[in-house]
Sequence to fold (107 residues):
Amino acid sequence: MSPDAELMVIFGTLHLIAVALGVGMFVMFLRSESSHGSKPPDEEDGGGGNDRVPARPKTSPSGGIPLPDAVQPAIRLRSHGRLADLRPGRERRPAREPAPTRRPVRH
Fold:
């Protein structure tokens, strides 16, 4: 068998294997259970939780120490308004003077 023919046989075999795997996965997808087929079991006693009781109550906040450079913002947004409405508008630049008009020069 020539090298070209061997290469064709190898690629053909690989393609057949890939098609067979694709068909198998498609069949498995069609036969899989749908999500509405089974329901999770109902719990009568209200659900989970942590049964462990802490040894002692916490004495400090869990967020850690406050940062020394934390500065409150000047404007706080607590409603549905826009932040741009709370800040004063920027000062506009003055308009430029129009450029002088050029006159065509005739030679």
Residues 3-31 form the longest helix (29 residues). The helical segments are 3-31, 83-86. The mean pLDDT is 79.
